[in-house]
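User: I'm putting together a teaching handout on how sequence relates to shape, and I'd like one worked example. Could you take Diguanylate cyclase (GGDEF)-like protein/PAS domain S-box-containing protein from Paenibacillus tundrae, show the sequence you're using, and then write out its predicted structure as tokens right after it?

Assistant: Happy to. First the sequence, then the structure tokens directly below it.
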Amino acid sequence: MTESNSSKENKRLNRTLLSQGTYTNDPIDLNNCDKEPIHIPGFIQPHGVLLAVNASHTPTIVQCSQNTEEYLGLTTDEILGLPLESLVGKDSLRDLMSYTFHAAVTSDLQYMDVTVDVSGELRTFLTVIHESEGLLILEMEPSNPDEKADVETSDYLWISRFFGRIKSTSNRTQASQIAAEQVKEMLGYDRVMIYEFDETWNGKVIAEAREEHLEPFLGHHYPASDIPKQARELYLRNWLRTIVDVHYQPVEIVPLLQPLTGKPLNLSLSVLRSVSPLHIEYLQNMGVGATVTISLINDNHLWGLITCHHYSPRYVPHRIRNLCNFLGAFFSSELFQRHQLDEYQAEIHTREQAARISNIFIGNTSPARVVEELQGEQQTLLNLMGASGAAVCYQDKLLLYGDTPTWEQVRGLAAWLAGESEDYSYHTSQLSLEYEPAKTYKEKASGIVYVAISPGQHHYIIWFRPEVVQLVDWAGDPAKAVIKTDDGIRLSPRKSFEKWREVVQSTSYPWTAKELNVLPLLKTIVRRQTENQLVQAEEQALQNARILRQNEQRYLQLMDFSPVAFLTLTDGKIKYCNNRAAELLGFEATKSLIGMDFKKLVPEKTQGTLQKSIDEIQLNSTQLFTNQLYFVTATGTSLLLEITLASVTHGGKPSLMVLLNSGASHHDQDRYNQTTHQLQNVLNTDPLTDMPVQAIFKSQLQDDWDECLRDNCSLGLLFIDIDDFRSYNATYGLQGGDLCLQWIGEVLTVVCEQYDALISRLQGGTFMLKLKGTTSDRSAELAEEIRQHVLALQIQRDLSDPNEIVTVSVGGAVLVPQEQLTISDLIERASQALLQAKTEGKNRAVVV
């Protein structure tokens, strides 16, 4: 026997089911149906007869179905051991043995008419022949003498009509509906459905043709267990399966074991193979009398089925079955090509949408402009991923569109996603199974796609899809499809749907390839943001270097004029010390200390205390840490000194400043206290504006929040931002920008004194101001006064146009702290108010 071309083309098929499986006595249900050995049932359906022939020498019948006497006029005892020639005749045997029988799928099966003398009457059987594990399997069904003679003309008309109608459709949905209607007409069945699998083999009815009195199944969903793995594997081989009467009595194959393998006869490619009792029970509960199932396959992948139901027994001749099988193969190929074309066109459209979103971020440097354009493209943003909601975080502004979790939930999720993402992106259709907190909002966000749009992932977009069971409606009442009502029924459309709901709980519709394929395009935002950040980082580095130099200059001035003993440490080594320090420690000159490891001056037993103080100061660079330590002098004596540590910059490197005091006199102690006070002031103030540094401001803001929460009073926060400050720096240089900051800082300080407010420089040209026990009206009054005072400075922005002057935008918020709120809520509201002021045209004050 030679291998057919179709067999060669199907080498990729999983053939494990062709040789594996055992009988089981366990009751079968939805939970164990995937273990049922459906390819070796040991039975056939009764509308035909089966013979298994050993053709190694003289073709001899070695197994048969129990109904041979009904169809062939011979008992099983008379058939078994009978040469096949004695049954079919010499000529038919010669014709039969000329075929190639090796088959991988049912399209490879051989068909021939075989005439048998049955009790003196010649009967013709349409016989399907294939090889199974060394035996020839002959499946014989009586020919129908009433079929029309003009078979070829009839078949041509069917094929022509089917092709024409499918080709005239404009989309995949219409093509599916036409296929269902055409197959129904050909079979004369009551109902025909197109059934499609998802990625996890759950099914959905996507098209249906039915008699009007039947309830619709269109849109119904079923779990993967309805068509378990081994059944799907067999559908890849048996492209068409039929059940003539679901109430049939299975016909046993005798003997049970085939002689060559010692195992039950493998009926993987059998057209008469008996059907799983589990499937039969399911169909009976639906009231179905007969079925035909046609596989929809592309590239050896089973993507769906044409499932046909009739509500009484119905035999379909081989010719019609094969014609449906052929048209099903054409439809599967046609639909796949349409799907590919639709996907291609949809991907082009999706990429156009992605480009529009990307250009919003890439083409604008103003955060206000980005937010404004995003608002106009809200629907594009949602449509891009077929999402019900989206969150965009940009420049610390969190914007929510559509149906989304809360701000706090989104921020918590984003922090988790930043850690889970690879190459700036992450997606899942089962978020709550991967991220526990998402269980509280799975109805809004069971599926998410995340893409970071900045290198540090502080800026990002998240799309949300709801739990799929929230979206699915039955087309009809599934309970109507259940005929039996006793509690013993395990299988029915109703229970199947409930099982499907269990399977897909906490799950959204999956993200498609066309949607995920645009993520690389969106990641171009990251590259452009990186480029912009490099420019900004370079500018910021220059400013930071100048601030560090200014801070260092203040430390140096303090050291130069201070009578207190001190040293400066970098990487644990003494880099600088004054004469007073050398004298106190017993050294003749400062050069004896330069370069020394500072810990050599401290006894080993107290080095742990010293290191603890150093660790603390590194964690809080705005604080001084004072302690008492024993030191070892140059002469080896022990000396107890008061020591104060401060985090400073020396030579452009992070360093420690160490003040030493022996407390020998009140005068020395007074000078030491004065110097530590001066040093604390240097640490806590901005060198450019002499305002409190950001860390001090935020610490005091949190303290005020806690006090207001306790005392039930209000707290106000204002953001003051110099409009287009970067362009001012570009025009006048960094030194000119510093002068501008100092001028505006002086104005802000004067105004704040009148309102008993605290102000700090946040970064660049942005200041923040807090006001305890205020009202929205009073804060709005302060905001407007700030804006007017800056205008009064008349700082010229453009040398060529005296009317172009520096302005500020002010945004603020006032809250009475509550237990369910945090300081972040106040900051977020003030930020949104500043954004509103910028969006409305700048040089405005908005307080909410």
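A couple of points you could highlight for students: DSSP finds 25 helices and 30 strands in the chain. Residues 1-36, 473-487 have pLDDT under 50 and may be disordered.
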